[in-house]
């Protein structure tokens, strides 16, 4: 695991830094299923980029006169591999910095998929992603929100934590924001829906 990331450093000045890197076996299965269900259901099949999702994201958005559909789970075209590239090797940010980041993000995503297994990618993702103001990684989040280890998180608790993405500073877990309250039951349904996917099950059950 990286000693520290750019995002962790930048957050530490305003929110402090809570993190506790843990092993794959200490994460438990519920949080792995929750992350995949919410963020990247094609995780087992793609090479780092979900081209279908990218194509959809580039299509013109509905006009204001048309009724908009609810935001799908995941909320965008970034795969778990792309998020690892951004979280570990690059930086967060919107506006022009987001577009400056795209080229190196593509490079690091390609490199990650080439060198790491899917298990390793998901393990790094769950150890480094921000899950609350100054809270990084699933162990710190589990302790912060539910006073228990990540391994002992219930399906509902895991879904609530993941439901705070992509803006854990805005979408609170405890106390629960309206966004998290609306989203986590959907994540649970998707967890149940993908639980019989053999390729995903192989990743989650890897020792």
Can you give me a brief rundown of this structure?
The chain contains ten helices and three strands, in the order H-E-H-H-H-H-H-E-E-H-H-H-H. By secondary structure, the protein is mainly α. Among the domains are: 54 residues, no CATH class; 79 residues, no CATH class.
Structural write-up:
This protein has helices at residues 6-15, 29-39, 51-58, 80-89, 96-115, 118-128, 138-146, 155-162, 178-194, 198-204; strands at residues 18-19, 130-132, 135-136. With 207 residues, the protein is mostly helical. Among the domains are: 46-54 and 73-117, no CATH class; 129-207, no CATH class. The protein has a three-stranded mixed β-sheet, covered by helices on one side. β2 and β3 form a beta hairpin. α4 packs across α5 (96-115).
What is the typical, i.e. mean, pLDDT?
Answer: 84
The strands making up the biggest β-sheet line up spatially as 1-3-2
What is the N-to-C succession of helices and strands?
A: HEHHHHHEEHHHH
Could you list the spans in which at least 5 consecutive residues all have pLDDT below 50?
64-72
Radius of gyration: 16 Å
């Amino acid at each position: 695991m990286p000693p520290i990331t750019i995002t962790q450093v930048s957050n530490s000045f305003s929110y402090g830094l809570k993190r506790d890197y843990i092993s794959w076996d200490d994460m438990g299965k519920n949080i792995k299923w929750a992350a995949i269900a919410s963020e990247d259901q094609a995780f087992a099949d793609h090479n780092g980029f979900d081209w279908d999702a990218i194509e959809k994201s580039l299509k013109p958005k509905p006009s204001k006169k048309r009724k908009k559909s609810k935001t799908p789970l995941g909320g965008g075209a970034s795969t778990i591999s792309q998020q690892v590239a951004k979280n570990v090797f690059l930086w967060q940010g919107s506006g022009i910095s987001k577009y400056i980041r795209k080229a190196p993000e593509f490079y690091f995503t390609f490199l990650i998929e080439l060198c790491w297994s899917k298990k390793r990618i998901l393990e790094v993702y769950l150890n480094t992603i921000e899950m609350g103001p100054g809270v990084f990684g699933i162990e710190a989040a589990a302790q912060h929100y539910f006073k228990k280890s990540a391994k002992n998180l219930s399906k509902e608790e895991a879904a609530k934590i993941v439901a705070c993405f992509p803006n854990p500073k805005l979408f609170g877990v405890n106390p629960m924001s309206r966004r998290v309250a609306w989203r986590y039951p959907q994540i649970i349904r998707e967890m149940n829906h993908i639980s019989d996917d053999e390729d995903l099950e192989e990743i989650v059950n890897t020792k």
